[in-house]
Amino acid sequence: MNHFLRLFCLFILPYLITNAFYSVNEKKKSGAEHFEPTVSVSTKKIKVHIEISVADNENGTGLGLSLSYDIVRAQGGALKVESKEGESAEFIIRLMFE
Q1: Distance (Å, rounded) from C-alpha 55 to C-alpha 20?
Q2: How confident is the model at residue 44 (pLDDT cuts 50, 70, 90)?
Q3: How far does CA 90 lie from the centroid of its chain?
Q4: Buried b / exposed e across 9-38, counting CB within 10 Å, b at 16+?
Q5: CA distances (Å), 36 to each of 27, 39, 48, 69, 73, in order?
Q6: Does residue 98 carry a pLDDT above 70?
Q7: Which residues make beta-bridge pairs with 55?
Q8: Average pLDDT over residues 54-65
Q9: Is the pLDDT at 68 greater than 70, yes or no?
Q10: So where are the chain's domains?
Q11: I need a surface site. Which of 27, 34, 41, 93 has the fewest CB within 10 A?
């Protein structure tokens, strides 16, 4: 396993998942009525890329996102955030697939 894949598996993906669980748990603890915490992880292959998505139904805190972005970009990948304030956040990582 190359150095980047180690960083990805040991830091970036666990960070995004942990952040998503933290965010939905905080919203649940706040007493939001009829809120059902949801976190999903999905992957898909698009031509020569692989996309990994971590989504939740609450906005994440963004802690550590800058470092994750820098690591992914240094390897020729892309990290995109799609967010709807107070509703959802999705982090999408696109990497070259060899």
Answers
A1: 7
A2: very high
A3: 6
A4: eeebbebbeebbebbbeebeeeeeeeeebe
A5: 9, 10, 36, 29, 34
A6: no
A7: 40, 90
A8: 76
A9: yes
A10: 3-31+38-96
A11: 34
For residue 29, which amino acid is it? K
Amino acid letter, 28: K
SS3 content of the chain, % helix, strand, coil (to 5): 40, 35, 30
In one-letter notation, the amino acid at residue 19 is: N
State the pairing for strand pair 88-96/49-56: antiparallel
Model-wide pTM > 0.85: no
Integer distance in angstroms from the first to the last C-alpha of the chain? 13
| CATH architecture classification, 3-31+38-96 | 2-Layer Sandwich (3.30)
User: Higher pLDDT residue, 44 or 62?
Assistant: 44
How far, in Å, are 6, 22, 24 from residue 78 at the CA level? Answer: 17, 24, 25
